[in-house]
């Protein structure tokens, strides 16, 4: 990943050195896991000294937290924007699924860190991320509930259905690679169709 | 996890000391990741010396491979048994999904290692596991294809649908905990209903 991707992934993070460190951490965590990575590994990969890393992040866990919080905030914004933009539950679910799936496919490397390294966060940081996850899940649940009330959806259990919708998107990050087919947008569209079926729309 | 769970998870593995090491490795990998775990950590947690570990496994990676291969073999057996026992595609998909989901919920700790630590395997070991995964995916794809041919299923793409079915099950291991609701069997049943919808059966 290069610096441009850093700007695209984390437009709110400044300065550029902090983004470079986050990108280097994503690579290192992806290769050696959080516990197998040292702050020196991250700093070196970003072309900096360990001391320079500490100017931007107090610890390796703080870099993980920055990556994880940012990813979860973006997911929540994506899901909330769809909920606000599309009052129709069917159109809303299509948009949510397409965007959520495409993001996890396109950004599978960073998404894997965001989704699978949570257990390594210190408790108070974990709680911040857990709250973002709950808010995302509640938003999806509210949309499905609205669809059930409107007679558009039929599901065995709203909570389980919301989990399943998000689960399909998250798991894309596990198996998707740079050479996977179909491309992220087409995969998003196919998954949206599957999700509509899952919610009883056919 | 205690030794009884070891016998249940790995009935084919002998002697008991090898199973104890695999259980200790699951705990250690779950807490510190593969790269953050030493062979000494595993041996100590199993109440053995590092030298005693090497009697059963040539390396830490060999313990991971034993856990991963066994989990993937069991998943393949489960999926193939369902395919052989249920000639009707609808009943077959219900059975596959229920069992696959319930297993990932009930055994979420070992399933996380089985599903998420693949990248740490040496190339030739990875290839063995990848072959088991391909066989599992092909079996699911064949069942969905048969259902499409029989007019029971309608999907945008058979390959994507098979991935989505397996994805739903695998991702349960990520979020399920010992206190999650519903219980593994009920979750399996709810997911089977969602999967039928996904495949256009309603």
UniProtKB/TrEMBL annotation, chains A, B:
Organism: Labedaea rhizosphaerae
GO MF: DNA-binding transcription factor activity; transcription cis-regulatory region binding
Keywords for this protein: DNA-binding
UniProt keyword annotation of DNA-binding present: yes
DNA-binding region: 38-57
Protein's name according to its UniProt entry: TetR family transcriptional regulator
Domain of life (superkingdom): Bacteria
Occurrences of domain HTH tetR-type (ranges): 15-75
């Amino acid at each position: 990943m290069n610096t441009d991707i850093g700007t695209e992934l984390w437009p709110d993070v400044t300065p550029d050195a902090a983004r470079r460190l986050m990108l280097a951490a994503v690579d290192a965590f992806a290769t050696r896991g959080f516990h197998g990575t040292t702050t020196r590994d991250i700093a070196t990969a970003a072309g900096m000294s360990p001391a320079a890393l500490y100017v931007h992040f107090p610890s390796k866990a703080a870099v993980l937290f920055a990556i994880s919080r940012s990813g979860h905030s973006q997911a929540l914004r994506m899901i909330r924007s769809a909920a606000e933009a599309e009052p129709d539950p069917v159109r809303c679910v299509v948009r949510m699924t397409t965007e959520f799936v495409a993001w996890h496919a396109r950004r599978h490397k960073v998404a894997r860190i965001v989704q699978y390294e949570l257990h390594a966060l210190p408790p108070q940081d974990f709680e911040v991320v857990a709250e973002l996850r709950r808010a995302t899940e509640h938003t999806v649940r509210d949309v499905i509930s609205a669809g059930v009330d409107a007679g558009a959806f039929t599901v065995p259990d709203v909570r389980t259905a919301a989990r399943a919708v998000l689960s399909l998107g998250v798991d894309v990050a596990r198996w998707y690679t740079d050479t996977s087919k179909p491309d992220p947008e087409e995969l998003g569209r196919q998954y949206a169709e599957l999700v509509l079926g899952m919610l009883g729309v056919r």
